[in-house]
Amino acid sequence: MRVLMLGWEFPPFIAGGLGVACYGLTRALDSLGHRVTFVLPKSVDRSQSSHVRLLSPEGQAARMRGERSVSSSGAQGPENASPTSTLATVTGAEASLAGEERMAELASHGFKHAVFRGVTAAFASPYPGHDACDKTQWVSLTEVAAPVAPEVKAADGEPAARAAAQQIAELMASISPALGSSGNGGVLQQGNGAYGFDLVGDAERYARLVVSLTRSDEFDVIHAHDWLTFPAGVMLSRITGKPLLVHMHSTEFDRAGNNVNQRVYDIERLGMHAADRVLAVSQLTKNICERRYGVPADKIDVVYNGIERENQQPPVGADIRSADRIVLFLGRITMQKGPEYFIAAAKRVLEKVENVKFVIAGSGDMALRMVELAANMGIGHKVLFTGFLRGKDVERIYSMADCYVMPSVSEPFGLAALEAISHDVPVIVSKTSGVSEVLSHVLKVDFWDIDEMANKIIAVLRHPPLGATLREHGSFELQRLTWSGAAERCVAAYAGAISDRAGERILQPA
Q: SS3 of 387, please?
């Protein structure tokens, strides 16, 4: 199967679980022998992206013309290339890399069939309050010049690039009611925070760039992850006639409660209704897609996330020994994740158990409010805020934890719970989470019931046999939650969408 996958983040450039899920699913599809072309908007940071080679539209066009491309280091490139349009362009040596050599390089990083392409861009995080700019130097899509397509004459003598641009403009106009007005540099407000910059405008520009980059590629199906890539997926599907599957990792109702941003909602609804199939990460998310967006139930496939266990266990002796017991919250500090309920439960726990520290690992628009809340409750010295963690720091914090709590108000899935179990940590999860549907050996609570949450934290800390049972049986449960299994369910959905499209063509009159 040849899969064109559209995503908004991918390791090492991640702001949340979406990037982790995209990586796990892509690697699993690759290991099953499927050819994945993954397109994402990223600036190149060669010090971090060792396993991903990004090709820009300009670089692709230059390769087809046999020219050298311009790199961020200033190598010789095509004539009239603008500086801001070359940040993700590969060097001439890279552009001329033979197919077999490229495959060998990707294979050395765990990929055998996957190809990664980047449209020149970077952007604020889709998660309110997450400061991605302190991790990577971003540039705005508003600064990116339109990609240059090869000058191949169309049948009527008009340059194909101009005809393609007209077709893209017409398609964008057809979906513009969902996009709304996306003035350059505007801020898309959502809830008590902001998405940052003009993400709806960035999604529109990403769609234009992706169509120019991939419209002539050969693929069997389009797989778009979350709302920011839906306009691109819809446009490509209409141009190529290939089936579109949209993957709902979260909905606007998860992120904002009932205070939804109408533009984001409209794009989500457009994507789901235009798609051949909708992939939901849980039954909880499927229900929201049905009730809130009017998507027919028989159009939605539930594809649970997985976990990769290899190389994730902390090394022996990595635990930091202390008299304090550690209770961990790891995730974005936003309304969706319920951090205020975690702190309220911490207050209850500390009334009965003294030697406990509560660690909040993450960043988000509610971070400052949570610091103030802990201080006002008189437990500020017992609640530690680490900020956004990645890589070995995440491994280290799991190795320290005696209990992991996920008190989410609305959690489409909850990959962090699987990660905690994989690190041998007892887990307490909110009943309003997708992961609670597939895990039996975790403790489950209503997010608002801080007394019950506190009681279960205390039970894990005070009764070692309970924690041991949760760890032992939780580990067994992970064996059936793999990215390989998720990939196989996606492939079945691809096949169904392709078959349905073929059936429609047969039924249409000649």
A: strand
